[in-house]
Amino acid sequence: MRYFCNQVNTNKKHIQHLAAICQAKGVEYAVISPGSRCAPLIIAFNRMEGINCLSIIDERSAAFVALGIAQQTKQVVALICTSGSAMLNYAPALAEAYYQKIPLLVLSADRPNEWIDQGENQSINQNEVYRNYIKKSYQLPVQVVSDKDLWYCDRLVAEALNTCLYPDFGPVHVNIPLREPLYELEEFTTRTLKNIDFPKPVYSLDGSAMKGLAREWSNYQKIMIVVGGFKEKDTRLQQVLQRLSEHDNVVVLKESISNVYGEYFVDQIDANIEVIQELKSLKYVPDLVITLGAGVVSKKLKFWLRKQTGVNHWHITRSFEHWDIFQGLSKVIQHDAESFFEFMLSFDQRQQSAYREDWRLLNKQTRNLLAIFLSRTPYTDFKVYDYLINQLPEESLLQLGNSTPVRYANLIHIPEYKGVAINSNRGVSGIDGVLSTAVGASIAKREKQCICISGDVGALYDSNALMNKYLQTNFKLIIVNNQGGNIFKIIPGPDKLEELEEFFTTKHNYHFEHLAKMYGCNYYRSTNEEELKSTFKAFITDGEESAILEIITPGEESAAILRGYLAFLKENIKLN
Asked: In whole angstroms, what separates CA 225 from the centre of its chain?
């Protein structure tokens, strides 16, 4: 493969080749943090036509911005940093990318090997530093002189990029020791480089194996399909799941970040499981559970299924993970999910079963009870999240913070017609990076409104996400400020400890108006239901700058209201 560059570039030829191979393989974004050791990388990528280079000072934020871009584009995004502790700041986002299956290519500049562990400035042992949460590590040679040296470097880079994408997406690390001088340039024109193509494989079982699975499928009277996280709406998957959900013996459970919608799909999983446990009914227990997509948010569903006996679990994946989250895993099926379900449909003998109808009636009642409860609920977190979810602009992107935001969203029915794509960093489910991920998503999809809903602690933790020049008018940040980590007042255990306020909820009196002014964002604020309704419209239609809406809510009352909702469900459910 050949590329043409008529610019002055770094004189380190293997770094020229590295940038060119990335361009040839479709890398469109490189997120760069400043540093001296990485100067050859900065020069090569910034001068490579077709690659958009973003400068993000804070490496932790930079990595999550890259994650947000890759999440939306489904393409490899390069991350470039200097040596030493800089690269350690990538770790939280790389762990998230590993478990969320997002393709990131870390290019870390390093000191030459002979100076590692010698007290040299800004140096640590960088080789394989991320070994537990990336797909693979590579290290380029220090000395690159001959054509064979270039061939070797090119081969490693091509393999690293292919590894980011196959058999499934994920992060890869290339460590790059560089000797001084670092800033020297040279003229160059046409050069030949090595690139290794890897055509996209098709993942499927052979016909006899599929027929065996179909025969087993047809014997089950109660099949539960649990759809984990998908980064965007998949029309083909949604259609085949809709057809399956019309069968009497099949129920499809989905969460807000599943990004699938169907007439018979069951959402609001936690509410339904709470009722089932109160009823102590076995009719909702499946014979077979099938999981697909990323991890499941609902802890109630996981704990409930783990208590059941005799439940088989099939996991469909392009990778090889053995996710035994319900402690009943019996098959890992490396197959495309859509074609797997289409085969089951073509082979399926419809079972006479009350399973779908039992779940449909349960879900209908919990949805009706939610509406009744919210109509009687005062201004608290639950009321605010219900309002926000229902007011989302159509076809917008929603990034949900961890802890309370994603959990509240799972309690609220989200109608299909809105076409909202919902994401959350639920790979590792850390507090870090939600704002930065949303910034990355807004950069990748500038034509859409990108709305981030975060709690106050998460927003404070990732406030450096606003410290860049790439904030667009499509970036809208909503901070629900209940003066601390209110999740610890909701989950059982911490709420009864004397350490609750200082060490769990970390109660505070911070507000965000000055933060908005510091970074040039328009600022809106509401403290009650009437203010929220009047302020939200101005906030969401603000086309002048990126905007922040701070919603002040009462923390103590909010926790009590959520606990009251679960009690209300159990008291008022009426099923035969």
From this structure: 21
